Amino acid sequence: MAYNNVHPRLSVFSTGSQSSLDYIPSAGTPPPGSAGRQSVTPIPKAGPSKGIYDRPLNKTRNTEVSAAAYAFLFSEMIQYTQKRVHGIGDLEKRLSLLGYRIGTRTLELMIWRNEGNSKNPKRETRLLPVLYVVHTQLWKAIFGKTADAIEKSVENDDEYMIIDNDPPITKYISIPKEMSQLSCSALTAGIVEALLDGLGFPARVTAHSVPKEGFPLRTTILIKLDRSVMEREEALK
Amino acid sequence: MAIFALWVINKAGGLVYQRNFTDGLAPLSSNDALVLAGTLHGIHAITAKLSPTGSSSGCQVIESETFKLHILLTATGTKFVLLTSPAELQAQADSVLRRVYEAYADGVMKNPFQTPEMPIRSEGFDARVGAIVKPA
């Protein structure tokens, strides 16, 4: 059922790209749309094919996104997802999947920005530095601050927790009582999972809200590492 | 100088939020409150048409011997109504209403679990409103 809803959308996209392909044979005359745009905002030396992928990546390094615009977008994402799932577990899984797609891109961009210009680019291969990258670099890249703590699970050796006392992305969200197990930080969990996967530390990552006095939105990102990671870590010791 | 209650009326005239802060007004049954909110919505629509000189934003204050009722109409038709003691200053009540509007934008409109135009059940909004009214 859910997939039936998705396909018409995809077909709209594909016809859209086809119509833009139609312009290619007559490359001498630029498509009418781009000519109109050029006349509105003249960009120096901007050809008709100048798109988001041609812009310098470092230009937006320190730019910030409007929190309100973000809040409305995330709210719509949750409402869209909620219409297409049954149950809270499913909703969290979908949000996590959306986060995963953000995470793969964030990892690439983050590494490129941090290591791209350094003389000895390096890649973390040990577990603790990688967790520290998540806690500091990743959080800084997407939230503009570091996470509040990294903790190791007392019960299980392969579980680590990253704690954020006041996650910016769920600031305006009030979970209704009947859905109290839901944590919208599942998106963040997906981002973290993608990052760990990309660095070669496969793990299952979930988000749980653990309110504390003074921090009603406190969230724990629980990382359960794959056995292969623990075995490798043991061998590297 | 006391704030008795806050109502939020949606653009169709339905009462979507009602919260009492201090005693001082006779308690209302929820049905009475709904009727009263609907009536106020109607009166407001009439007062908006009464102005002899072009358009008007409708009534902003209704005063009685025992209480004063301040109304803030937003661009989208949502009304915030603040019931206060008669001594409450207009400017003060206005500032409270503006901050409540801000809290509404944050705690209600940005909350994905809130259906527009439906009764407001949002802990975030409750907490924000509590923080605004308490110090006053």
From TrEMBL, chain A:
GO terms for cellular component: endoplasmic reticulum; TRAPPI protein complex; TRAPPII protein complex; TRAPPIII protein complex. Keywords: Endoplasmic reticulum, ER-Golgi transport, Golgi apparatus, Transport. Its main location: endoplasmic reticulum. Pfam families: TRAPP. InterPro entries: NO_sig/Golgi_transp_ligand-bd, TRAPP-I_su5, TRAPP_component. It is found in: Endoplasmic reticulum; Golgi apparatus, cis-Golgi network. Residues 21-58 are annotated as: Disordered. The keyword Metal-binding does not apply. GO terms for biological process: endoplasmic reticulum to Golgi vesicle-mediated transport. Part of the multisubunit TRAPP (transport protein particle) complex. Belongs to the TRAPP small subunits family. BET3 subfamily. This is Trafficking protein particle complex subunit. It comes from Calocera viscosa (strain TUFC12733). The lineage of its organism: Eukaryota, Fungi, Dikarya, Basidiomycota, Agaricomycotina.
From TrEMBL, chain B:
Gene3D superfamilies: 3.30.450.70. SMART domains: Sybindin. GO terms for biological process: endoplasmic reticulum to Golgi vesicle-mediated transport. InterPro entries: Longin-like_dom_sf, TRAPPC. It is found in: Endoplasmic reticulum; Golgi apparatus, cis-Golgi network; Golgi apparatus. GO terms for cellular component: endoplasmic reticulum; Golgi apparatus; TRAPP complex. SUPFAM superfamilies: SNARE-like. It comes from the Eukaryota. The keyword Zinc does not apply. Keywords: Endoplasmic reticulum, ER-Golgi transport, Golgi apparatus, Transport. The keyword Endoplasmic reticulum applies. Part of the multisubunit transport protein particle (TRAPP) complex. PANTHER family: TRAFFICKING PROTEIN PARTICLE COMPLEX SUBUNIT, TRAFFICKING PROTEIN PARTICLE COMPLEX SUBUNIT 4. Belongs to the TRAPP small subunits family. TRAPPC4 subfamily. This is Trafficking protein particle complex subunit.
